[in-house]
């Protein structure tokens, strides 16, 4: 396996040399500065690749091995294959990525909102902070800040009453923070920041789109783009929904084993793969993650490894330490190792420690929410230890001068 690290570009708080410090060898990144729907040009892709892969003397080489993500424009999610111009632009970006030698592209198909959290610095029992999704706080936002039409139908009378009490106890700053966390696009998001009126307008555009229709739109997108991916030798990896359940009355179609099975049956191309995100899939109680790895092993080219812990109301969860949540990370890695051991060196699975607690010096620094250096370094070290214990240590290239 290869150890990946999410890097947000030259302005990110974590530098490429600091990525080397933690033992990662593969960069997971994107051209975040390019507007959603615009083509990633050949020159821009190659410039970022060269920035990552030009190795200073005496340093360990890094490889840009995963693009996360080329955002899929909203029009594709709403009208599927009819969004011809948007799909053609996406293919043009894919072609420039593939020709630059980047073999994996991660993407998601979450409508309107990408990954969603209500708190960015929930204080854990160690004093470190984590991200959290609190169902009642989410309901308060949906019912009394967004004021989504028909939202009341999604909550029981008791849930509406608790959400209203919570909302009435919020001060102006708490409301502002909640709007920022949910509506203004978290780091790495592939959706646009929104005002509350803009949020309502977006939701209105999805009226009448149910899960079957949204899935069909994804299938039409994949039917259009997988031939290009196949010709380039690029693997497309669909990231699960986060959280893995409908939000704001919108369907979500990459939340369960059945969801992925339907997509692989519909588009059997070997380029049609998955990003196996334990943090997203693990939130849902009925998802048996080791069994999912066994079933979809050949489709897994990239894996986000993080853990979550469901709370008293299982719809509420927080991000736990990597080895201290509801997901049996050892069992997941054991299943991934079984598949990885079958592969040629160039086809090995890229893993990355996803998210991480904000701890130690990072508590006083400006950090990218979800992506503090120290918490992710701890997670990667723990995951690396499991791989060694399983007899499948990750690839560890050295500087040319020391080879």
TrEMBL record:
This is Mannonate dehydratase. GO terms for biological process: D-glucuronate catabolic process. It comes from the Bacteria. Its cofactor is Fe(2+); Mn(2+). Its EC number is 4.2.1.8. It catalyses: D-mannonate = 2-dehydro-3-deoxy-D-gluconate + H2O. InterPro entries: Man_deHydtase, Xyl_isomerase-like_sf. One of its GO terms (molecular function) is mannonate dehydratase activity. Belongs to the mannonate dehydratase family. It holds the Pfam family UxuA. It comes from Xaviernesmea oryzae. Keywords: Iron, Lyase, Manganese. Catalyzes the dehydration of D-mannonate. Pathway: Carbohydrate metabolism; pentose and glucuronate interconversion.
């Amino acid at each position: 396996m290869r150890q990946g690290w999410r890097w947000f570009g030259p302005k990110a708080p974590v530098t490429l040399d600091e990525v080397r410090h933690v033992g990662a060898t593969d960069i997971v990144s994107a051209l975040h500065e390019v507007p959603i729907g615009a083509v990633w040009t050949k020159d821009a892709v190659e410039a970022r690749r060269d920035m990552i892969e030009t190795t200073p003397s005496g340093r360990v080489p890094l490889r840009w091995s995963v693009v996360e993500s080329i955002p899929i424009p909203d029009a594709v999610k709403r009208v599927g294959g009819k969004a011809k111009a948007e799909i053609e632009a996406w293919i043009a970006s894919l072609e420039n990525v593939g020709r630059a030698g980047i073999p994996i592209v991660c993407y998601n198909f979450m409508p309107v909102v990408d990954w969603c959290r209500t708190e960015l610095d929930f204080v854990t029992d160690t004093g470190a902070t984590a991200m959290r999704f609190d169902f009642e706080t989410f309901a308060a936002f949906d019912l009394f800040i967004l004021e989504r039409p028909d939202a009341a139908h999604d909550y029981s009378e008791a849930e509406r009453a608790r959400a209203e009490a919570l909302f009435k106890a919020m001060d102006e700053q708490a409301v502002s923070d909640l709007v920022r966390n949910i509506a203004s696009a978290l780091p790495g998001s592939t959706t646009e920041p929104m005002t509350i009126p803009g949020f309502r307008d977006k939701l209105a555009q999805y009226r009448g789109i149910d899960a079957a229709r949204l899935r069909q739109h994804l299938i039409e997108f994949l039917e259009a783009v997988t031939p290009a991916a196949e010709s380039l030798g690029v693997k497309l990896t669909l990231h699960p929904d986060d959280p893995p359940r409908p939000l704001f009355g919108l369907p979500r179609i990459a939340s369960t084993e059945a969801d992925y099975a339907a997509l692989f049956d519909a588009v059997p191309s070997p380029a049609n793969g998955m990003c196996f995100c334990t943090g997203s899939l693990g939130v849902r109680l009925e998802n048996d993650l080791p069994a999912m790895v066994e079933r979809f092993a050949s489709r897994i080219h990239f894996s986000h490894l993080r853990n979550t812990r469901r709370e008293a109301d299982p719809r509420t969860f927080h991000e736990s330490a990597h080895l201290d949540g509801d997901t049996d990370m050892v069992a997941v890695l054991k299943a991934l190792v079984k598949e990885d051991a079958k592969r040629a060196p160039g086809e090995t699975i890229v893993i990355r420690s996803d998210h991480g607690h904000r701890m130690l010096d990072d508590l006083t620094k400006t950090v990218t929410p979800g992506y503090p250096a120290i918490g992710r370094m701890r997670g990667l070290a723990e995951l690396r230890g499991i791989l060694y214990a399983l007899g499948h240590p990750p690839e560890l290239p050295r500087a040319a001068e020391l080879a």
